[in-house]
Write a structure and sequence with these properties.
The chain has 240 residues and is an alpha+beta fold. Helices cover 32% and strands 21% of the residues. The chain contains 8 helices and 12 strands. A 5-stranded mixed β-sheet has the order 6-5-4-7-8. It has a 4-stranded antiparallel β-sheet with strand order 9-10-12-11. A 3-stranded antiparallel β-sheet has the order 1-2-3. Strand 2 and strand 3 (52-53) form a beta hairpin. The radius of gyration is 20 Å and the shape is elongated. It starts with a strand and ends with a strand. Mean pLDDT is 86; it is low at 8-32.
């Protein structure tokens, strides 16, 4: 298998044109380029874990796709090692992680040695080789005002139904906070499984908010007793 290759979706030509056709992002545009209800682009790729099909690799679980501007960069070296060290945390949340960088597979393999040396953690998830920038184009990772050989440092959290739950973009000089990404996944999974939302600065184990779509009667049936702070703000114990 060579460089990354997009896999066309077969359910409709409309979705294929929306999802798989890279487009130029003008400086006037600020919106997320894919409809939240549209599955994120699928692709086949070579990676440090062997050839993968992105959607098949995620299966029916959760996923995190995060990008790097190039290999042998200092901040990303620390990030990749940090994620490798958090594998058990991602595993217990049923989350598979995929990294992507625009350099070749051979360069990725060389970089992996530095990641182990610097952080003490060997890569234990696929790092996709994207030398022709196929994945970067599909996900609009090339910023129009930046060097067109460098991807923006993006994070995509993807749910079991292949819907995008969260996007984040970081500047090159700021390392990503993966404890925060795990916290967000905890929140998203509670919303998906328990009909609750989470307040500002929430941490697992703290009280959560009952979603407004539930009536008081429905809330009592599901959660038992709860606290009504305001008619639109009802709190209950963390159901997880």
């Amino acid at each position: 298998m060579g460089a990354c290759r997009p896999r066309p979706r077969v359910d409709s030509s409309r979705l294929a044109s929306q999802v798989l056709r890279p487009r130029k992002w003008t400086t006037e545009e600020t919106r997320w380029p894919f409809d939240w209800a549209t599955p994120p682009p699928n692709f086949d790729a070579d990676s440090t874990a062997g050839p993968i099909n992105f959607h098949d690799y995620l299966g029916d679980g959760w996923g995190v796709l995060f990008s790097h501007p190039k290999d042998y960069t200092p901040v990303c070296t620390t990030e990749l090692g940090t994620v490798a060290g958090l594998k058990s945390e991602f595993d217990k949340r049923n989350v598979k992680v995929v990294g992507v960088s625009v350099d070749s597979l051979q360069e990725h393999k060389g970089w992996a040695g530095d990641i182990l040396d610097v952080t003490g953690h060997a890569l234990n998830f696929p790092l996709v080789a994207d030398p022709d920038r196929t994945v970067a184009g599909l996900y609009d990772m090339i910023h129009p005002n930046a060097d067109n050989t460098l991807t923006v440092r993006s994070v995509f959290v993807i749910g079991p139904n292949k819907d995008v739950k969260l996007t984040l973009t970081y500047p090159a000089a700021t390392g990503r906070n993966f404890d925060e990404i795990l916290r967000v996944i905890d929140s998203l999974q509670r919303t998906a499984n328990h009909k609750v939302a989470t307040p500002a600065d929430w941490k697992p184990g703290e009280d959560v908010i009952i979603v407004p779509s539930l009536s008081d009667a429905q809330a009592h049936e599901i959660f038992g007793d709860f606290e009504t702070v305001k008619p639109y703000l009802r709190k209950t114990r963390d159901p997880a």
